[in-house]
Amino acid sequence: MTGAEPGLMPSQVLSANRPDCDFPLNNLPYGVFSDDRGPRCGVAIGDRILDLAACEAQGLLDAGGTFAAPRMNDFIARGPDAWAAARARLTALLSPDGPRDLPLVAMAGARLHLPIRVEGFTDFYASRHHAFNVGCLFRGPDNALPPQWDHMPIGYNGRASSVMVSGTPVYRPMGQVAGPAGPEWTASRRLDLELELGAIVGAATALGTRITVDQAEDMIFGHVLLNDWSARDIQAWEYQPLGPFQGKAFATTISPWIVTRAALEPFRRAGAARTVDPMPHLRDSRPGFHDLAMGWTLNGQVMARVNYAVMHWSQAQALAHHASSGCPMNVGDLLGSGTISGPTPDQTGALLEMTRNGQQPVTVNGQPRTFLQDGDEVGLFAHAQGAGYRVGFGPCTGRVMPALP
Length: 405
Ligand code: CA
Known about the structure:
Low-confidence stretches: none
Bound molecules: calcium ion
Distance between the termini: 50 Å
């Protein structure tokens, strides 16, 4: 935490002032919700949602009509000055001195939707512990990290079409896997989760335009929790030499609320120490990480806790690297951090690592477990801890369903 941490900012919504509430006035995460009316943009405050479309219609704030849309992209595309103006206005409206007749709806009675139209999804591999642990399982400790790992954020182009909001069922994928007598077509037997932080790109770059890491910092609108569901048996058979494909393509779950970069700013901190000086286009001038206590649950049991600041490559570095070839970036692009893992098994963000590729079962509610079973529910969680309050992400859950016939 930096010295700028302001303490709880009280709200007229009293449930927002509880120290264990994920959504105090300090947070103001954006999402898309519906109730008896259709999907529109809102901001979470305590156990309520402020209806931003209604606020605009009543003249309480002005975002060019973008909050009436069923996705956040149009508002995000208005740019950093509009983000700051909206945050300042919402802070005033929801403060104890704000108007009393705000259009607030109960979160418990609302349905939450995918908050953005995901333009592209790219996933990285930015935890040294995760990369090392997985590399040890398949290549041994001497060759665990590939030679480029210290020099750039390794990534692959994932699928935007299967990014889904928390609570959406996850069907076990069918796929081709290696068997003792040759390849088999089967429902995955090694279904796994990956605990990640997603970054939502809030500004576009033109074809052929490179950006610095500092510019990339200012282009990130906010963050979501992200579960990069992975079928390890499909992945193991298909991934060489072009990387993950169907083993990752079937589902990615994100949390419904976008926690803005502005809300996390007091919690900015440095990541893991680097032993290799990055190339100029990957150098940063600010600490690029946040002090986020994260973890995941399986059927309600906490399986791992880890701090996001264990990571090696920041999401701004990943974004600068992504654009470094001249690849255009779009508003609504989603970047996954890569699995967030610390040095010990109880800090690992995937069952692959935690069970050492299924060789060391873990106990979940009294049952031995290696990979995910049908009916299992995985939950991710994260918050930044302030003095007497926290900036949280809310739930990010998904239940595993049997493979579709
Ligand atoms: Ca991943």
